[in-house]
Amino acid sequence: MTSWSFVRVFAGLMILVSLALGVPASPLFVSQYWLLFTAFVGLNLLQSGITKWCPMEIIVRKLGLSSGA
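Structure (tokenized):
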């Protein structure tokens, strides 16, 4: 797995988990404030798509995953 694919899988997982915790209809509902985390992840994805710079990808590369798209 490359750093590129790991970051996208991780971001998708964080969005799904935060939606499960933040949507009142969910059986795992904790608080609607979890939706702020969903927005934060979405904004980071938007920023990385525009600037081609992702801090999470830099961290993952330093942990040993190869870069690549």
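The two ends are 10 Å apart (CA to CA). The chain has one domain: 3-62.
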